[in-house]
């Protein structure tokens, strides 16, 4: 699947979610920080998975040098470590960041 096809699938899923999610959110002032952190970390996790998928595709396609592979691997590991740290700060687990992407499956 090409990146354009993947982006088209993601766009369709975002549009589908717009129809499911409420127009207004009842916000508890005491839980705003945690809810916002969950949202932001979920979005970062989605982007991390996309980057990871693209990196694997580029490696398998032979489009990266050994040095680039090393740098990319280190960057992804650091991002993963930082995500673990941030989840700990806000008391979130991996399950808290799982979202159903419809035809694309569940973010894991």
Task: Describe what you observe in this structure.
The structure is a single chain. This protein has 108 residues and is an all-alpha fold. Helix content is 66%, strand content 0%. The chain has 3 helices and no strands. The longest helix has 29 residues, at 32-60. The model has no long low-confidence stretch (mean pLDDT 82).
Low-confidence stretches: none
Helix and strand string, N-terminal first? HHH
Radius of gyration based on Cα positions: 16 Å
Strand content: under 5%
Search tags:
108 residues; mainly alpha; 0% strand; flat
Secondary structure layout:
Layout: H1 3-20, H2 32-60, H3 66-89
Helix pairs in contact: 2-3
At a glance:
This protein is mainly α and 108 residues long.
């Amino acid at each position: 699947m090409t990146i354009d096809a993947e982006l088209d699938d993601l766009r369709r899923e975002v549009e589908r979610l717009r129809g499911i999610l409420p127009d207004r959110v009842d916000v508890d002032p005491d839980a705003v920080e945690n809810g916002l952190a969950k949202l932001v970390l979920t979005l970062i996790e989605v982007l991390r998975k996309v980057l990871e998928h693209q990196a694997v595709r580029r490696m398998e396609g032979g489009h990266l040098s050994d040095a680039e592979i090393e740098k990319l691997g280190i960057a992804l590991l650091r991002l993963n470590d930082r995500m673990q740290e941030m989840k700990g700060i806000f008391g979130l687990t991996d399950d808290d960041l799982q979202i159903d992407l419809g035809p694309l499956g569940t973010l894991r």
